Amino acid sequence: MTLTKKDLAKGELAEEALKAYFVTLGYFVVRSVPFNYSGYDVTDVDLWLYMKSSPLNRDRTCVDIKRKKTPQAIERVFWTKGLREVLGVERAIVVTTDNRKETREFGSKHNVIVLHGEFLQRIINIFSKTTLRIIEEKLIAELKIPCVMDKNVLWPSFYKGAKATLLVGLNFNGCNQLLSKIRLIIEEYMASNKTSVAMVRLLYVVTAYFLIALDYTTRLISHLDLDSRRTGLAEGFRYGDAGRQRTDEIVDTALKLLVDTSSADIFSSAKIKAEVENQLSQYPADVLAEYVAKSETLNQLFTLGRAFEGLAYELKPPMPDQCPAELKTILGLLCDFFKIDRKKVL
Q1: Which string of DSSP letters, residue by residue, matches 317-329?
Q2: CATH hierarchy code of domain 5-132
C-alpha cells in the first residue's frame, strides 16, 4: 500500500509536520506513543520528544497537538499538564490552532509551553514541500504482513508495544524487553531470506528505542570508573532493575517453598540454586556490558539512536549490510549477544 501526506487527515498531517520539525532541532521523536495501565489503553501521546541536554541530564517532553476550528486550548493545557505529571516527564507542550495571547499566558503560568496556530501552519507549509521520510501510517501499513516465526505475532501491535516501553520502561527492564523484541525481528528477517524491507525498518526503529532507553538508564553511571560501569551494566542486563540481591532473595524464597512442599529426596535446594546460578551465568550480559561500558560508547548512544531512527523512515532504507560502519557495529554486537552468526545478517 502506498501512503503519502495526501492521505493524512488534518490532525495526522500536523503530527507528521511537527515530528519532522522537532527532528531537525536534534530531538529523538516518536509519534503516537500508547500509554497503557494494567492492560488498558489509556491514551496516546501525540509526540514524545527526547533530548540529551548534558552528560547527566535528559529532557523528555510530551506534546499534545490539536488542529481544529475549536481547539479548546486551555482545556488541553489542563490535560497535558496532568499527562506530564503522570508520565513523570520534564516538559509539556500544547500545539494548537488557537492564536490568543491569553492561552499562551495560561500555559506559561502552569509550565506548559503553548505553540500557536500561526506557528503550526508555518510548519505544515514547510513540511508539505519535503519528501525525505516516510510517514508513520506507511510504516504501519508495511508491517501488516504475517509473522513467519510466530503466527500469533501481529507486527503493528508488536511495534506499538515497543513504543509503549518509552513511556514506562526507560530502565534495564525496558532495555531487556526491547532486546527480546530485537531478537525476534532479526530471526524474522533471516527467515524472510533477508528480503523484508518491513523487518529492516522495524529492526532499525526498535534498535533506536533500545539505544535511547539505554542512554537514559546509564546517564547516572557515566561518571563511574570503567569496572563499576561494566559490573552495573552486566547485572542490569542479567537481573533487570531488581538487581542481583533482589533476584537472589526471590530465588531463595521460591526454593524454600519448593523444598517445604516437596520430598527432600526429589528436590535439593542447593542443586536447584546451583542450576539457577549456572543458567544466569550463561546469559551473555557481559557481551553488551563490555562494549557499552566504554566512555565513547556511552557518549554516542543518543546519536546512534537518532541515526537508527532516521534509517527506519528513509524512503528506501539500506539493508543491514549496507549500513554505516558505526551502525553495523551495533547490529553485529546484538547478533553476538543473541548468539546469531553476524555474517548471516550483515
Answers
A1: PPPGGGS-HHHHH
A2: 3.40.1350.10
